[in-house]
């Protein structure tokens, strides 16, 4: 079936999807990408990570792909900004006030050019090395002068259990996503991966029937809904498996590469 599919766009999440257990991209994927490029298939890396972090993981091909970062708030192709959905100033101030009242919650404020933190503990700092290796410490959020695209909230035990219930009420006004075991992300309502992928589809005249998407967590749901060929990883959250049309192997078993090999 896949060999007959007319795929023009392939989108993949990073953590828990394209990245393996060591947070690395396989050499097999880079080999497959050359064949995708030869077929003029556009590849998009869509993640909650920063643009810099995604680009470093895919450094060898970063000039040939579109990078969707901060859960869809930013999309960049060859240094050209395609999508930009920052948190509005008054909304940011209200969110900061709410976050300050949450126990054992550590916020990361993600701008386009820099990442900011206010407080931390040892577990938090160790995890930051992988996702946010460079950051600025501030004593007060008022010190942040650039627009913030995403607020990532960290809990050392479970973000879904200990943070999400306290911010769930924001869902009517903001995009609130449990993006991993330790993280809940908050951004403007349009700042999600589905919005960014819809923009890319429209810009390049690509239909959902010509789109393939891979994801594993709740922040991938909207973009999975933009593709006929939507794949949940074997390690995906149950809510993601319920939305996706197909299931592939886990990220540890190179589930993305498994399907791309069939396609090619």
TrEMBL record:
InterPro entries, per database record: Cof, HAD-like_sf, HAD-SF_hydro_IIB, HAD_sf
Gene Ontology cellular-component annotations: cytosol
Coiled coil: none
Entry GO MF terms: magnesium ion binding; phosphatase activity
Keywords: Hydrolase
SUPFAM superfamilies to which the protein is assigned, alphabetical: HAD-like
PROSITE patterns: COF_1 (PS01228)
Listed Pfam families: Hydrolase_3
PANTHER family: HAD SUPERFAMILY HYDROLASE-LIKE, TYPE 3, PHOSPHOSERINE PHOSPHATASE
Entry protein name: Cof-type HAD-IIB family hydrolase
Species name: Aurantibacter aestuarii
Lineage: Bacteria, Pseudomonadati, Bacteroidota, Flavobacteriia, Flavobacteriales
